[in-house]
Each structure stands twice: as structure tokens, then as C-alpha cells.
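Quick log. Single chain, no ligands specified.
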Amino acid sequence: MNELETALQAPGGWLPLAILAIMGLAMLAYVILDGYDLGVGTLLGAAGERDKDTMVASIGPFWDANETWLVLGVGILLVAFPPAHGLILGALYLPVALMLVGLTLRGVAFDFRTKGGADRKALWNRAFSAGSVLASLAQGYMLGQWVTGFRGDGWATLFSALIAVCLLGTHMLLGAGWLIMKTEGALQVAAVRWARVSLGLTAVGVVAISAATPLVSASIFERWFALPDVVLLAPLPLATLLLFFIVERSLRRLPTRLEQGNAYGDGVPFAGAVGIAMLAFYGLAYSLLPWLVVDRLTVWQAASSTESLWMIFVGACVVLPVIVGYTVFSHPVFAGKATALQY
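-> predicted structure:
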């Protein structure tokens, strides 16, 4: 951490870190908020026709605004850290293109499923689900490539493919938790089953990234396993393990409660999934800071000029409260159980 301490003492040395923190917040918010509606979209393919309108209604007021966080995060990367933007997106050209195709397909299908005629509604439902799956897999593959430092060899490709499937599972877990919280009846019970399957995929992804990250770089390995850091950091994996246990126990008990008409604790799976995502994000951030590309490009090496960073920082400080305010405001407004859409 000597490089970090030295940079913080230099004029403007804290500014790239502050902007990186804002970018990190935007990406974390995107993973959680767009994660649950991507998960609901993915699960749409497993639901019965009568339940699909209720599932879409549960995310209808939120899904489009949730993607704002992705725009903010990538926009900051472009203007604040242009060398990193060029290197990262250059290495991820194909999965980025596939993600955009998936997100576009979702947007088109969301509108056309209600306006394209009842005879084509099933087609657009499948398109919405396919777009959600494609976007999730592409994002997971990009995460795997970023963790491995864009090495491009066979093992890195296989690892990235595994993380692609596991991130899809994480989105499904968030989506299933959202449906448990927002729906009733048979759909709510089905969401419990989907969540139990998704929880296993999420656990595999967390374990895989936790095991691979220290092996990618000697400095990351030392950061986690040198004394006394290994003792001080022990609560992080223990807290993650505890959340997995709480979510699994809740999912095991919920079906019996729901059959008895008792919905107590139906928000636990979603809250636990959010907690797991936040702890995993924190662990990854701790591992990689100050690298934007592992062992190749630090946050200071990639940063724009101090004058440009000030403009970006001021702009972000104006925009961020607006987005946070809307997000905080909209969820209580549309609180409660979702019902089937009426046309």
C-alpha cells in the first residue's frame, strides 16, 4: 500500500480515488438494481403464461431507470480514465456488443409484448427472457475476464464462462427474491424453488472468484494472506457464509409458511442476496485497488488531468443525488404486492 499512501499525499492524489468510488457505487447499484429485473426477465421463461404479466408488472416501474446506473458507471470510466476505458472495452468488444444486443432486445420486447397483438405476446415474452439471459451472461463473462486481467488463455476463458453462468444465477437469485417479496400464491412458491437453485450457482461464483483473485497477482495474494491482514479480513468471508446460511434456511422454511398463509420473512431472501452481492463487491474492490487492470494499469496511471477530474467530480456530485433520490423515492411509491397488468 506504499504507492497508495504516496499518491494520497500528492496534490490531487485523492481525486481519482473519489471518482473511482463514485464509479464503484454506480456499478454496485447496477448489479443489485438491474440485477433483480434481469433475474425476473430470465425467470420469465420458466413461468406459466398466467404469471408472466404479474412478473413484468413487478419490475415495470423500475427496470428502465435501473439501467441509468450502468450509463453513469461506464460514462465515468470513459471520461475519467480513458486509457482504462480503451483497454478494457477493447479487450471486451464482443461481450459488450452482445450485452447491448441483449439490453436492446429487452427494451423492444417490453413494449411490443403489450402493443404487438395478443397473438405475438408469447414471442415477445420469449424475446424479453432471451435478452435478459444474453445480457447477464455477457456481463458475467466480462467480470471473469476483468478478474483474470484479460489474459485470454484457455483457463481464463473457461473461468470467464463459469462466472458468466454464475452471475446469471446471481441475477436469478435477486430476481427470485424480488418475486418472493412482490408476489403471492403459486408464483411466490415457484419463486422460492427458483431461488434455491440460484443460490447454489451464486455460491459457486463467489467461491470461484475468491479462489482465483489471489492467484492472479502476487500482490493480491499477499494482501489477503499476510499477517495480520488474514486475521483482520476473516469477518468478511465469515459474514458472507452467514448470509448464505440465512438465505438457505429462509428458503427452506418459506414454503411451509406460505401454505399456511403466513408470509413472514418473505423479504429475507432478497435482503440476503443484496448483502451477499455487497460483500462480494467489497472483497473484489479490496483485492484490486488501486488496479483498474490487474498488474498493468493503476487508477492514477489511467486518470485524466486534474482539471478534467474536477469537472467530472462536480458533475457527478450533481447527478448522483438525483439518481439516488429517484431510486429511493420510486420504490416506496410502488411498494406492495404486484398484480397482473390490465390492458
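Residues 16-333 form one domain.
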